[in-house]
Amino acid sequence: xxxxxxxxxxxxxxxxxxxxxxxxxxxxxxxxxxxxxxxxxxxxxxxxxxxxxxxxxxxxxxxxxxxxxxxxxxxxxxxxxxxxxxxxxxxxxxxxxxxxxxxxxxxxxxxxxxxxxxxxxxxxxxxxxxxxxxxxxxxxxxxxxxxxxxxxxxxxxxxxxxxxxxxxxxxxxxxxxxxxxxxxxxxxxxxxxxxxxxxxxxxxxxxxxxxxxxxxxxxxxxxxxxxxxxxxxxxxxxxxxxxxxxxxxxxxxxxxxxxxxxxxxxxxxxxxxxxxxxxxxxxxxxxxxxxxxxxxxxxxxxxxxxxxxxxx
Length: 312
Ligand code: CP
Ligand code: NVA
Prior knowledge:
Layout: H1 18-33, E1 46-51, H2 57-68, E2 72-77, H3 89-99, E3 102-106, H4 110-119, E4 124-126, H5 134-148, E5 155-159, H6 165-176, E6 180-184, H7 193-206, E7 209-213, H8 216-220, E8 225-228, H9 254-257, E9 265-268, H10 280-283, H11 290-310
Parallel strand pairs: 1-2, 1-3, 3-4, 5-6, 5-8, 6-7, 8-9
Helix pairs in contact: 1-5, 1-11, 2-11, 3-4, 5-6, 5-11, 6-7
Bound molecules: phosphoric acid mono(formamide)ester and norvaline (NVA).
C-alpha cells in the first residue's frame, strides 16, 4: 500500500481497500446518472495531468472530468518538459505540489511514479505505468456493476499479454472487488510473480481468487467477463519479440466467446487492434461493453479524484 494518512495516492489498484473501492464506484455511478450535478465538488482546485506516453481516452476523460467538477486541468506533454534533460521526478513533484492540488501522470517505469509520489505533498494518480493501469480497471469494474449488477463472486477472464499493465491491474483490482480473476497468456507473457502473489493475498481476504491458465478456452469457460488488450503495449513496439504468432490462440473471437457464460460481457480498454486481439464480430457484437467502458473512465476518475481530495 502506498497510501499514508495525510496524503492519499492511487498508484496501484490495491491502494484502495474494498470498502474504499466500493465507495468510489458508488460515487462513479452517481456521477454517471447525474453528470452535471456535481459541478462544484472540486471548485477552485487545479490538477496537473502529465503524459510521457500517448493517450486519447485518458487525456480527454481527465480534462473533461476535472472541468465538470469545477476544477482546472493543467495538461502537460512531457516532451515539452525538462524530464528529458535530467530534471528528476522528485524535484518536479516538489515544484508541482506548490502549484496544484493533485498530480495525474502517465509514465514508463513504476519507479518514476513512486519517486514522484514519495516527494509530492498532494495526491498522485497513476494514469498508466508499465505495470499498472488502475484508473482503467476502476472504469471496467463500474461497467461490470452496470451490466451484471455486482462484482463479488463474478469471474473475470483476461486473455492475451498477461505480462502487461492491464493484466496486473485486473489481478489486483479484481481481487479487491471480490472477483475470481483468471488469466491466460502465451509462454513468456505471464504476470509478474510478486503481483500475482499479492493479488492472491487480497483475493483470500475478499472472497475472490486468482488463477493462471495455459489454454484460453479453459480460462474463458463459464466466465462472466472476458477481457483483453493490445499484444504490443506502448514502449514495446521495437522489443524484437514476436507479438503476433504466440498470441493467436488468445484472440477473443466468436469461437472463444462461445465457451463463456451466455450472458458474458466483453471488455477492451482500447485502443483495439481489430483482427489481432479481438475480432470485429466480437468488438461490435451484443456482448461488447467497450464503449460504455470507455465512457466510464470519465465517471470513475471524477469519483476517484473527489475521494482522494476528501482524504488528502
Ligand atoms: N484506455 C486508455 O487508457 O486509452 P488511452 O491510451 O487512449 O488513454
Ligand atoms: N497495455 C496498453 C494499454 C493502453 C491503454 C499499453 O500500455 O499500451
